[in-house]
Amino acid sequence: SAAMLRNGAVGGGPAAGEVAAQRPVRVWCDGCYDMVHYGHSNQLRQARAMGDYLIVGVHTDEEIAKHKGPPVFTQEERYKMVQAIKWVDEIAPGAPYVTTLETLDKYNCDFCVHGDDITLTIDGKDTYEEVKTAGRYRECKRTQGVSTTDLVGRMLLMTKAHHSNIDEDLDYRKHTDNFGKGPKGHSPWTGVSQFLQTSQKIIQFASGKEPQPGDTIIYVAGAFDLFHIGHVDFLEKVHQLAEKPYIIAGLHFDQEVNRYKGKNYPIMNIHERTLSVLACRYVSEVVIGAPYAVTADLLDHFRVMLVCHGMTEVVPDKDGSDPYEEPKRRGIFQLVDSGSNLTTDLIVQRIIKNRLEFEARNQKKEAKELAVLEAMKRLEEEKH
């Protein structure tokens, strides 16, 4: 464990112990981090908790294309996205697809951490074999209720079954049952399940920091759906507006987002969006279910000094009024150009364009996972 390494329990006598006590425990994670969601953030959070310093290796587009199929985001976008997750201390661009001891040594990492699902190379081998054998592998729990496969499924289906407090849509249920299916049955890793929010999860993700004297309290509001690089660029720009920024993000409820975005938006429900935004290093606090109009009450309650909005269109409130009327009246409203034109819409289009490749890729992955399960079962049976 990290504590053992810190206390010098690894590496012999007291002299080694004293040296080890000085040295921070360095942890390694790696992956594609293509469509980053709170499941990835949660893995990185758990990994960071196992040591003092977390380095995240991100694969290149070329490596991903070779092993999995073309990514939705470019490597530059993916590097920036991972860097914005608050538990990440450093990223290692262009990390090799297979984690080797050589890589761990190069970045001076004690061990690597991976979720308790399996990763297979193109020829069906466990990508973590080498580090497992050397005892430099740790596992963390996979987050229940979200997977890239499931998110893609929600995008492809124009239903609203994934919103909170809306009755399950039968078509959606039927589809989720087929979406992750391989040739023979169902892989437990790629399947779809429902996300259940708990206060514990929110506490784990929250900063827990109150605004301090001298902080500039900045309020931003929106759907922040499928939290992506466009959001990160915007929040980073807002963060740069003050010496000591304290950014509060107001998230609208699902029904509100659906009113102004239409279709089956939001793709992620309010609980999922809460965790996604809390995982961002630029955000200090989240209002879960913020009112659409930025009211005097809200501004006074949080002692807001500045309200920011990106360059996207502001849809009028139900009564036709401007939701930013009050902050404008107070002279504390500011438009912020993120320099990014990426919207959730564009990202969904990118993903749907990749749809066929995705589906083919998931079925191959599913078949591989099932084959491994079969093999594991056979081994078990042979033992008995």
From TrEMBL:
Q: Where is the Cytidyltransferase-like domain?
A: 28-152, 220-310
Cellular component per GO? cytoplasm
Annotated keywords? Coiled coil, Lipid biosynthesis, Lipid metabolism, Nucleotidyltransferase, Phospholipid biosynthesis, Phospholipid metabolism, Transferase
- Pfam families the record matches: CTP_transf_like
Instruction: State the family it belongs to.
Output: Belongs to the cytidylyltransferase family.
Top-rank taxon of the source lineage equals Eukaryota
Per the database entry, which stretches of residues form a coiled coil?
353-382
Q: Which pathway does it serve? A: Phospholipid metabolism; phosphatidylethanolamine biosynthesis; phosphatidylethanolamine from ethanolamine: step 2/3; Lipid metabolism
What SUPFAM superfamilies does its record include? Nucleotidylyl transferase (SSF52374)
EC annotation?
2.7.7.14
Quick one: a GO biological-process term for this protein?
phosphatidylethanolamine biosynthetic process
List, alphabetically, the NCBIfam families matched. cyt_tran_rel
Gene3D superfamilies tied to this protein? HUPs (3.40.50.620)
Q: Looking at its record, which EC class is this enzyme?
A: transferase
Bilayer-crossing residues are none
Gene name linked to the record = Pcyt2
Q: What is the name attached to this protein's record?
A: ethanolamine-phosphate cytidylyltransferase
